[in-house]
UniProtKB/TrEMBL annotation:
Cofactor(s), by name: Zn(2+)
GN (gene name): dnaJ
Pfam families per record: DnaJ, DnaJ_C, DnaJ_CXXCXGXG
Zinc finger extent (CR-type): 155-233
Organism the protein comes from: Saccharomonospora glauca K62
CXXCXGXG motif repeat residue numbers: 168-175, 185-192, 207-214, 221-228
Full protein name: Chaperone protein DnaJ
Entry similarity comment: Belongs to the DnaJ family.
Chief location of this protein within or outside the cell: cytoplasm
Keyword Oxidoreductase (UniProt): no
Chain ranges of the J domain: 10-75
NCBIfam families documented for this protein: DnaJ_bact, PRK10767.1, PRK14279.1
Domain CR-type, first and last residues per copy: 155-233
Positions bound to Zn(2+) 2: 185, 188, 207, 210
């Protein structure tokens, strides 16, 4: 979609957010609406498909800081009543409702092709020419996948079934019924802009006949309705790198929405969600595991066997080890593509038996008598003594 076409759309209303919404609020609203209206969840529902395309289009603009800035500037300039919104009659003296006039008259402002071109002959610059419609890069698309913990550690190759806007296969993206072609707009001559005068001032605005496209489609494509884009289901292969983090995004260049006017397609971002493991956790490149042990193993020392993701290792517990101590097993963590390798962190945790047989109970009482002179909490004992 070209920047000129933004003027006829309210992307904030499509997502149900306010114009000052944060990036996180915009993303949350898009995800909710995309799930509710996804074609896979609403087979045969044309309204849901239309809404899905609309929210995807809106998110593609509002999620990009530069595109959102251009869109907001366009709304301020043209959405508030023509020249009055520029800070002339009905506006402030300094400029267009907070828009710097130096920027307005400047050239080559991103997707607009220069707001100065859009304003055309403002302040008597009658020698200027409007810039023809330019191609617009396709919007980025985001989707989610869920993988197991082991797949996240080792990496995986996954098939991804995706329903998203893509170049219409029937018309090839030009929006016209096969066998016909779009014709040059007779009002703007294919430029996409028309010049208008208001009092002493002249300015340019998007052509209403062609909505700024520069072409008119007399016989729209039956599949895409003249948009040149239709929702298609496709299967992609996604390579998940070893060591991917939960909630990390993987970028697939050129796999997003198709561009307009020969511009490149957007990118596809795959957000990875990792299922937790029943035994192992993760801290950066390190794997973590909690190992239950007996008190005697900590007090006297022991050699224990600990599982890894691949096999097992033997770990020595020094005598007098405290519960909660972490032992490090080098090189048994996560190995990433850049060669960095993590460790296995083993947290020792004493398990207190819920029941003891007679022999164990006698042995434990004998132990308690043997260490009766040893106070395990001297600081607390001293504080209690001071308060007597």
């Amino acid at each position: 979609m070209s920047a000129r076409e933004w003027l006829g759309k309210d992307f904030y209303r499509e997502l149900g957010v306010s114009p000052d919404a944060s990036a996180d609020e915009i993303k949350k609203a898009y995800r909710k609406l995309a799930r509710e209206n996804h074609p896979d969840a609403n087979p045969g529902n044309a309204e849901a498909e239309k809404k899905f395309k609309a929210v995807s289009e809106a998110y593609g603009v509002l999620s990009d800081p530069e595109k959102r800035k251009e869109y907001d500037e366009a709304r301020r300039l043209f959405g508030s009543g023509g020249a009055g919104g520029f800070g002339f009659p009905g506006g402030g003296a300094g400029g267009a409702g907070g828009v710097n006039l130096g920027d307005i008259f400047g050239s080559a402002a991103g997707g607009f092709g220069g707001l100065g071109d859009m304003l055309g002959n403002l302040f008597g610059r009658r020698g200027g020419t409007a810039t023809a419609s330019r191609g617009q890069r396709g919007a980025d698309v985001e989707t989610d996948v869920r993988i197991d913990f082991v797949e996240a550690v080792r990496g995986a190759t996954l098939p991804l079934r995706l329903s998203s806007p893509a170049k219409c296969g029937t018309c090839g993206g030009n929006g016209a019924r096969p066998g016909t072609q779009p014709r040059t707009c007779p009002v703007c001559g294919g430029v996409g802009l028309v010049n208008r005068s208001q009092g002493a001032f002249a300015f340019s605005e998007p052509c209403r006949e062609c909505r700024g496209r520069g072409t008119v489609i007399d016989d729209p494509c039956p599949e895409c309705g003249g948009e040149g884009v239709s929702t298609r289901t496709r299967t992609l292969t996604v390579r998940v790198p070893a060591g991917v983090d939960d909630n990390q995004r993987i970028r697939l260049a050129g796999q997003g929405e198709p561009g307009r006017g020969g511009a490149p397609a957007g990118d596809l971002y795959v957000r990875v969600h990792v299922n937790p493991h029943p035994l192992f956790g993760r801290s950066g490149n390190d794997l973590t595991i909690t190992l239950p042990v007996d008190f005697s193993e900590l007090a006297l020392g022991a050699t224990v066997t600990v599982p890894t993701l691949d096999s097992k290792v033997t770990v020595r517990i020094p005598p007098g080890t405290a519960s909660g101590r972490v032992l490090r097993v080098r090189g048994k963590g996560i190995t990433k593509r850049d060669g960095t390798q993590g460790d296995l962190l083993v947290t020792l945790q004493v398990v207190v038996p819920s029941k003891l047989d007679d022999q164990a109970a006698r042995a434990l009482r004998d132990y308690a008598e043997a260490v009766a002179k040893h106070d395990p909490r001297p600081e607390i004992t001293a504080l209690l003594r001071d308060r007597e």
